[in-house]
Prior knowledge:
Layout: H1 2-33, E1 67-68, H2 71-88, E2 93-103, E3 108-110, E4 114-116, E5 120-128, E6 132-141, H3 149-153, E7 159-162, E8 169-172, E9 179-180, E10 187-198, E11 200-210
Antiparallel strand pairs: 1-2, 2-11, 3-10, 4-10, 5-8, 5-9, 5-11, 6-7, 6-10
Amino acid sequence: MTVTGRSLGSAVLLALSAAALGCGGGSKESEFADEPPDAGALPPPQPTVSAPPPDTGLPPVAVPTAAPCDGVQSLAMTTMFQGRASGEAPKMQPEGAPVCNVVPEGQTASGQTFMLQPGYCYTFLAQALPTVTEVDLQLELDLNAGGQPGLAALNLKPVLAVDSDTGPTAAIGAKQSCYQWPFPLPATVKLVVKARTGSGPVAAQAYSRKK
């Protein structure tokens, strides 16, 4: 009986030890499972999506440009110049062909270049059809023309003369106050006409005579 009691006691102690070891192993696994993630690790980058430009829904605005006069407009301008020339450019002849363009408000039209000669009188006329209520005229020196080294040395301003009129007609050197080129060298110039108020056909014509 004594031997059997000792054996039974040993068996109970072994069973309790095994149970204690099993509980300790489970606690260790739980410790590692509950460990928080590394706080220093960076999150993966998020993909970026570029937003498309906002759709205004409006088409691009076309900028109006100057265009040559048609046959009817050119004939009307020529007739007007002929009617004015007898009183504003007496005894003068047309210097080249008139410039005639249909321009938007605030834009200009330039004629072909021609030569100002010493010893001549000049008159310059500008005209607009009724859709333009204010026209401006100026005489400009063509600084890009070749063969004028003497004029370049004079350091002249590009704008030689401007009109002082109001309304749909303009003139420089009209009637008895003709424009005279004051230098002994000829100069290449051009007329520039502007639709200051209103849009439509504008034209300019040069006249000349020997003094």
